[in-house]
Automatic annotation (TrEMBL):
GO terms for biological process: lipid metabolic process. This is Alkane hydroxylase MAH1-like. InterPro entries: Cyt_P450 (IPR001128), Cyt_P450_CS (IPR017972), Cyt_P450_E_grp-I (IPR002401), Cyt_P450_sf (IPR036396). Heme binds at C445. Keywords: Heme, Iron, Metal-binding, Monooxygenase, Oxidoreductase, Signal. GO terms for molecular function: heme binding; iron ion binding; monooxygenase activity; oxidoreductase activity, acting on paired donors, with incorporation or reduction of molecular oxygen. It holds the Pfam family p450. Its cofactor is heme. Belongs to the cytochrome P450 family. The gene is LOC110796897. PROSITE patterns: CYTOCHROME_P450. Residues 1-25 form the signal peptide. It comes from Spinacia oleracea.
Length: 499
């Protein structure tokens, strides 16, 4: 090729780029590859990138994938759109078959279900998760775990003066507490020797692969699954490990019930599995009687629902307190001035106002579940004026939502527990389509009260007994996943308060 031809190609390319380049700071929709290069360029800082993009696009933008994939996502954090999708036109926005495929390990559990199957699950879950016997059990076991698991480990690291990764510690706490509450089985992963537990590791692997399934084209991960290689092979093994663990617990529980061998006083205090098994004849889902498979799906779903969200919130909560020691002092003062009775869940969730505000504020800035998605059935127009096509994926980014001036005001990047307190000193409630952390509409989270009481028990146990000091040389940043884990955890030193 001569100089002249090279010059022509060069200037054509420059013209081409200038012609297509978006001038408003939004991602450019390049021929063939769509907006994909822009996303790839920013993948390591995807949360911050979405804050920028959604701010510039007035809270909603349409992401165009490579042309051959026909991928089009509508990303929105506009509260009016969320209210519309989650409540007003709920029937038009199921989770959809793509969600089902990616989360197939959850079987037919509530997270994966739509329409009549979901309605059935929802009714059951509402009844059992709100059951007084289960709530008593939850509080009793969480307190026991704090006393026999959390305190000994914190005492151990403070006596030796060694660092501990708080994120790992909380993951162990919620894994043990979750197994105990769901199935009355404590695997004791929260102990001074920090054992590796195959089922806990399997859950981590499953979550990693599910995220992978969201970012690579469907045909790629399905091909890997067919070949049983790479991440899909890891997924299959993890699935097997979890199944074997949960089915063993179900069998043991059934035997205990038949032999009347139950550990707790069943009249006042019972784990979730026992409640479900005792209602066995009612476990006829709209897709037929599923026996232990139904119990397995239910236990696993509740497990995934609660375990990470609670441990992640606690990790960010203590990270923020390390930056705002005055908030930790105010929480301690509140705890010192209140008669604590954890068994009274309602009272504890309404009385510890400042602690409640600090937890809400943590989840506003660091929502433990960072992304949510729905799929449209029919075409629709959103309140923002955006056109929704049939079978379109609607994605919500909760991280960006908590950091929008137009939603939370000019001080949206500041940590202010006071934001959640009324002039009368009560807890201030925000509409769920604005504070979307626990979902909104008919599919609102069913574990909200449980989660708050567990987080408050852990926060109170630590703040009343210890001082937490962040290790200086570390960069604490969120990772890129569905759950907002910290990339390298949060390393701290622990000091016992003088008694
Ligand atoms: C800080 C803690 C928690 C947060 C932030 C949270 C958040 C959420 C969110 C965002 C959803 C919607 C997920 C989706 O539809 O894709 C959800 C649903 C759900 N959560 Fe939670 N959750 C928490 C703790 C819990 C706990 C402890 C439980 C009980 C074991 C629980 C039970 C459920 C259930 C059963 C659903 C499904 C509701 C439905 O689809 O109808 N959650 N939660």
């Amino acid at each position: 090729m001569g100089y002249f031809e090279i010059l022509i190609v060069f200037f054509s390319l420059v013209f081409f780029c200038l012609f297509f380049q978006n001038k408003n700071g939004l991602p450019t929709n390049w021929p063939l590859v769509g907006m994909f290069p822009e996303i790839l360029k920013n993948v390591d800082r995807i949360h911050l990138y979405l804050v920028e993009i959604l701010e510039k696009s007035d809270l909603t933008f349409i992401f165009e994938g490579p042309w051959f994939t026909k991928m089009q996502l509508l990303v929105t954090i506009d509260p009016a759109n969320i209210h519309h999708v989650m409540s007003k036109n709920f029937q038009n926005y199921p989770k959809g078959s793509k969600f089902n495929e990616r989360f197939d390990v959850l079987g037919d559990g509530i997270f994966n279900a739509d329409f009549v199957v979901w309605q059935y699950h929802r009714k059951m879950a509402q009844f059992f998760l709100g059951h007084p016997k289960f709530n008593n059990f939850l509080v009793k076991k969480t307190l026991k775990k704090a006393e026999n698991g959390l305190i000994p480990v914190l005492d151990h690291v403070s006596t030796l003066g060694i660092q501990v990764n708080l994120q790992d510690l909380f993951a162990r706490f919620t894994f043990d507490a979750g197994c105990t509450i769901m199935m009355d089985h404590d695997p004791n992963t929260l102990s001074v020797d920090f054992p590796v537990n195959p089922s806990s590791k399997a859950l981590d692997d499953i979550e990693e692969v599910i995220f992978h399934r969201h970012v690579v084209p469907t045909c790629v991960w399905k091909f890997q699954r067919w070949l049983n290689v790479g991440k899909e092979n890891k997924y299959k093994k993890a699935w097997k490990t979890l199944d074997s663990f949960i089915y063993k617990c179900i069998t043991a529980k059934r035997e205990d019930i038949i032999n009347n061998n139950q550990k707790e006083d069943n009249e006042v205090c019972t784990d979730l599995l026992t409640l479900y098994i005792k209602d066995d004849e009612n476990l006829k889902t709209p897709i037929g009687y599923q026996g232990d498979k139904f119990l397995r799906d239910t236990v696993l779903t509740n497990f995934i629902a609660g375990r990470d969200a609670i441990s992640i919130t606690l990790s960010w909560f203590f990270y923020i307190l390390s930056k705002y020691p005055e908030v930790a002092s105010k929480i301690k003062k509140e705890l010192d001035n209140i008669v604590i009775d954890w068994t009274n869940v309602k009272e504890m969730n309404s009385k510890l106002v400042y602690l409640h505000g600090a937890l809400c504020e943590t989840m506003r800035l660091y929502p433990p579940i960072a992304f949510e998605a729905k799929t449209s059935i029919a075409s629709d127009i959103l309140p923002s004026g955006h056109q929704v096509n049939p079978n379109m994926l609607i994605v919500f980014n909760l991280y960006a939502m908590g950091r929008m001036k137009s939603i939370w005001g000019d001080d949206c990047n500041e940590f202010k527990p006071e934001r959640w307190i009324t002039k009368q000193g009560n807890i201030k409630h925000e509409p769920s389509y604005k504070y979307f952390v626990f979902n909104a509409g008919p599919r609102t989270c069913l574990g909200r009260d449980m989660a708050f009481i567990q987080m408050k028990i852990v926060a109170a146990t630590i703040i009343q007994n210890y001082v937490i000091e962040a290790v200086q040389e570390q960069r604490v940043v969120p990772n890129v996943s569905i759950f907002l884990h910290m990339n390298n955890g949060f390393k701290v030193r622990v000091f016992r308060r003088p008694s």
